[in-house]
């Protein structure tokens, strides 16, 4: 591929999505050298360039066709899509994969002393948010007439600062809300990080590269959810043991050298093995129970 035909991927420069986006690219075999001050990183083993930008800019870069792929939170993506649609700008994109990081929710929260029965309690109130389009869509769906006040950061201080009566912001553990004397009430949007592609067709070379990388992403995601379980079990209790192993339709059963009444069982499980199940296996006479992480998988 020529230099101009290198696949361009936008990732957040620094923030909640950066390290996991880079980790995923590395896990699928893309060699990268990220230097903090460099905003473009070239892969040394694939025709891929990374553009390191603010996450707010990623949806627009994709929708304007400036980059080919991007890692972005669905909250930011949907907000920018609504905003661009309203101002009649290009707002198309393709979602390639929903990923396993950046999980959060956009929620309405009120000061602890605020009497909130339902979202109707916000009628006539001001709500501070970085996501006015998502919030206004939610209000329209619920038939609420409240005003969204746009703030680009520190949304949690808005009620105390007298800027708004309530807020609508991202929540994960709830610690930030609690620290600011706020109570979560209604969920407006649930989000995860996604990998998106621009909607125009790519060159056959670029498309072929993406088609080769997507099964690797699936393999990494699947491997993270799976465990390799090994144990020794008494032959007499084989069926009981199998029924205790989660998601284990086809375990491999192997003989143990010099031991006739016991076998080794190996199984790839889509779930982890909980301590309670391990205790039950032990009670059935199982031993050497090992639960191992899996690095990569391919069907
Ligand atoms: N507490 C959280 N837990 C998990 N994911 C989160 C959390 N907060 C935000 N996210 C997700 O990560 C994305 C980026 O969040 P971050 O706080 O790093 O953005 P930012 O401050 O807008 O950064 P930037 O400087 O790039 O504009 C959010 O849009 C959301 O999808
Ligand atoms: O429910 P919690 O687990 O407390 O997380 C929620 C906080 O996380 C995000 O901010 P972040 O920490 O990324 O900082 P930022 O506001 O500077 O972007 C978000 O904007 C909330 O403020
Ligand atoms: Mg941002």
Question: Layout of helices and strands, plus pairs?
Answer:
Layout: E1 7-12, H1 18-27, E2 40-42, E3 48-53, H2 58-63, E4 69-73, H3 74-86, E5 94-98, E6 104-111, E7 126-129, H4 132-142, E8 147-150, H5 158-161, E9 166-171, H6 175-179, E10 182-191, E11 193-197, H7 204-225, E12 227-234, H8 238-244, E13 252-256, E14 259-269, H9 275-283, E15 287-293
Parallel strand pairs: 1-3, 1-4, 7-8, 7-9
Antiparallel strand pairs: 2-3, 4-11, 5-11, 6-9, 6-10, 12-14, 12-15, 13-14
Bound molecules: adenosine-5'-triphosphate, 1-O-pyrophosphono-5-O-phosphono-alpha-D-ribofuranose and magnesium ion.
Short description:
With 299 residues, the chain is α/β, with parallel strands linked by helices. The protein has helices at residues 18-27, 58-63, 74-86, 132-142, 158-161, 175-179, 204-225, 238-244, 275-283; strands at residues 7-12, 40-42, 48-53, 69-73, 94-98, 104-111, 126-129, 147-150, 166-171, 182-191, 193-197, 227-234, 252-256, 259-269, 287-293. The strands form three sheets. Strands 2-3-1-4-11-5 form a six-stranded mixed β-sheet.
Kindly report the spatial arrangement of strands forming the biggest sheet: 2-3-1-4-11-5
Q: Look at the helices and sheets and give the structural class.
A: alpha/beta
Give the helices and strands as they follow along the chain: EHEEHEHEEEHEHEHEEHEHEEHE
Helix coverage percent of residues?
25-40%
Q: β content, as a range?
A: 25-35%
Number of strands: 15
Terminal CA distance? 29 Å
Radius of gyration, in Å, reads 25 Å
Low-confidence stretches: none
Task: Summarize the main sheet.
Answer: 6 strands, mixed
């Amino acid at each position: 591929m020529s230099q101009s035909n290198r696949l361009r991927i936008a990732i957040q420069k620094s923030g909640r999505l950066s390290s996991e986006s880079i980790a995923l690219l590395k896990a699928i075999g893309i060699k990268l050298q990220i230097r903090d001050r460099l905003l473009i990183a070239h892969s040394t083993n694939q025709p891929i360039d990374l553009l390191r930008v603010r996450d707010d800019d990623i949806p627009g870069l994709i929708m304007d066709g400036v980059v080919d792929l991007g890692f972005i939170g669905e909250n930011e993506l949907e907000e920018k899509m609504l905003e661009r649609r309203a101002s009649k700008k290009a707002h198309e994109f393709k979602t390639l994969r929903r990923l396993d990081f950046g999980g959060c929710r956009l929620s309405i929260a009120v000061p602890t002393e605020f009497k909130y029965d339902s979202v109707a309690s916000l009628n006539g109130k001001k709500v501070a948010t970085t996501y006015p389009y998502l919030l206004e869509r939610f209000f329209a769906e619920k038939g609420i007439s409240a005003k969204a006040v746009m703030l680009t950061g520190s949304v949690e201080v808005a009620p105390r600062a007298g800027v708004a009566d309530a807020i609508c912001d991202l929540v994960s553990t709830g610690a930030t809300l609690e620290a600011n004397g706020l109570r979560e009430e209604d969920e407006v949007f649930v989000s995860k990080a996604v990998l998106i592609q621009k909607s125009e067709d790519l060159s056959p070379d670029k498309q072929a590269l993406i088609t080769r990388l997507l099964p690797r992403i699936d393999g990494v995601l699947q491997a993270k959810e799976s465990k390799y379980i090994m144990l020794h079990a008494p032959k007499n209790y084989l069926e009981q043991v199998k029924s205790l192993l989660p998601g284990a339709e086809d375990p491999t059963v192997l003989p143990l050298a010099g031991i006739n009444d016991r076998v080794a069982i190996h199984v790839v499980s889509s779930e982890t093995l909980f301590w309670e199940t391990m205790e039950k296996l032990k009670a059935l006479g199982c031993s050497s129970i090992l639960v191992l992480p899996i690095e990569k998988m391919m069907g």
